[in-house]
Amino acid sequence: MRLHLGPLDILDGPAPTPILVRGQHLILMRDGERLVAAERACPHEGADLSLGRCAAGRIHCPRHQASFDLRSGTVSPGWSFRALRLYRVNQTLDELWITIDPT
User: Fold this and answer.
1) Residue 93 burial (CB count, 10 A)
2) How far apart are CA 3 and CA 100, in angstroms?
3) How many beta carbons lie within 10 A of that of residue 55, not counting itself?
């Protein structure tokens, strides 16, 4: 399901931006030129990933410093929990759209 997020300027700088989409708490961020959305709670202990940092294609958890690949969601070596859920974000002109699979 493709949903409208809003204007491009909802991204407030390089930090992950918290968003709410159909009752799901997500974060929106830039990975170079690519836009990425992910679940907001870390799959390990539920830490708020909007407080983490995005660098070199990864989002870093603020609680335990594990990081997740922003292309696949896989966790950094040494951790054994599920991958981060990622969502496709597209830009058309100055508007952002997200693709959410139906639940």
Assistant:
1) 6
2) 7
3) 11
pTM, whole model, 2 decimals? 0.90
45 contact partners, CB below 8 Å, separation of at least 6: 63, 64
Q: What is the DSSP letter of 49?
A: G
CA 80 to chain centre: 20
Residue 20 in this model has a pLDDT that exceeds 80: yes
Task: Give the tens place of pLDDT for each residue, 21-68.
Answer: 999 999 999 988 889 999 999 999 999 999 999 999 999 999 998 999
Q: Are 84 and 43 in contact (CB under 8 A)?
A: yes
Question: Which tokens in the block code for residue 4?
Answer: 């409208």
> What's the length of the chain?
103
